[in-house]
Amino acid sequence: MERGVRPRANEKHLRGAHQEETWDPTPEEHLSEEHTEDVGQHPVTHEEIGGYNWQASKSSLKERFSYLFNNEILSDVHFLVGKDPGVQRIPAHKLILTAGSAVFDAMFNGTLATRAPEVELPDVEPTAFLALLRFLYSDEVQIGPESVMTTLYTAKKYAVPALERHCVEFLKSNLSADNAFMLLTQARLFDEPQLASLCLDTIDKTTSEALSADGFTDVDLETLCAVLERDTLHIRETTLFQAVMRWCENRCSREQVAAVPENMRSLLGKGLSLIRFPLMTVEEFAQGPAQSGLLTDRELVSLFLYFTVNPKPPIPFRDTPRCSLTGKEQAVHRFQQVESRWGYSGASDRIKFSVDKRIFIVGFGLYGSIHGAREYDAKIQVLLPPSGKICGSNSARLTCDGADYTFRVMFKEPIEIRAHTNYLASATIKGPDSHYGTQGLKTVTVDTKSGPVTFQFMYAAGNNNGTNVEDGQIPEILFYT
Known about the structure:
Keywords: Cytoplasm. Its main location: cytoplasm. The protein is an alpha+beta fold. The chain has helices spanning 8-14, 61-68, 94-100, 102-109, 126-138, 148-157, 161-173, 180-189, 193-205, 207-212, 221-228, 237-255, 261-268, 282-287, 289-292, 297-308; strands spanning 36-39, 42-45, 77-81, 88-92, 118-121, 330-333, 337-342, 349-355, 359-367, 374-384, 389-400, 406-417, 423-430, 434-438, 443-446, 453-458, 476-480. Helices cover 32% and strands 23% of the residues. The chain is elongated.
């Protein structure tokens, strides 16, 4: 059959989705079937080319091209999309495809251009390919949860970045703890770093929920390791270890091997070294990892020594905390009374402190103005003496209303405070005279769900604007256990 010519029966079948576009000629417009025009080298009737004057009812170029989508009219190439038995034969128009995709341009017009009337695409889903064609013909986006990933793959394959962006935006708007791991795997597969970053942020904020979702145990090892490497997971290490054990059991089932420690350790590979056993309590370690069979005798001994002796021996596992902020925010109050008029001349208010167990500081409570509503510029820091190493720092605008209670100034990220180590809390404040605290306490114990935390406060030698244990600024340290 010549190009552009097709049986009338086919026309009726393929135009079923366009019934609203059906045209009935008036008597004045009616032309006999003997009226012909040349298409190619053979005369054919207007009926044979799919309905005379269909263009008249289309008021814009977009409408005319949209009408040609998935339509045999004027089609000059067909695609056999998918795999048996679900292959679909889809008509298309080289000009439109070439105008929308450099890949199609090369396919039809390059030095190795195909001349075949049919092109096989076994690696593409028919639904996704139709979504791509619809976009090229009409700029319309039709994607859903079931087709978005295959459409993203197809848009990348045929270099249609505008459709790629629509797919990624759809995924962003539907991202949740339930699908974060599944989408992270797909984002890494399709090289979508922005989407991958958003997935990781979601996993950071909802770690427990994400690890409980069905998609977690199906992730590949590289994706699992990318998560285990993160310092920002909000979860206790013992709970993370239990999730990794579930992943190992599922992987053993998929690989059709017995879920025994030797196989699980082999399949986990480098992921084992990314579990931060030192962050567990000795009880958590003894009741879980020590009995799992995943660790060698040498690793077990070195970890038990790490938990029980000082100085701690070197171990092959990281001890950097993951900032797993659980429970509610706590505050230690070091003054018993509030007085008036504390001035600022550019020097920093500083106080030395230590705690008896590891915590994470998230900010300071500072006193505000004695002159009513005012604003202050405050730079807060936590430093490690005597080197002066900055553990955390932030600059912020403090707005107060003249009351004698404290006002919060927060760090951008939680700061790990190790047990039995001296630190300096520092606040450099610019603004009018403020309230200040008196009758300070050297030792303050705060009851938390994780048990009591005891703070020791000490004088910070040097220029500290007058703040000391007994009176001054920095009345509160805000923290999590």
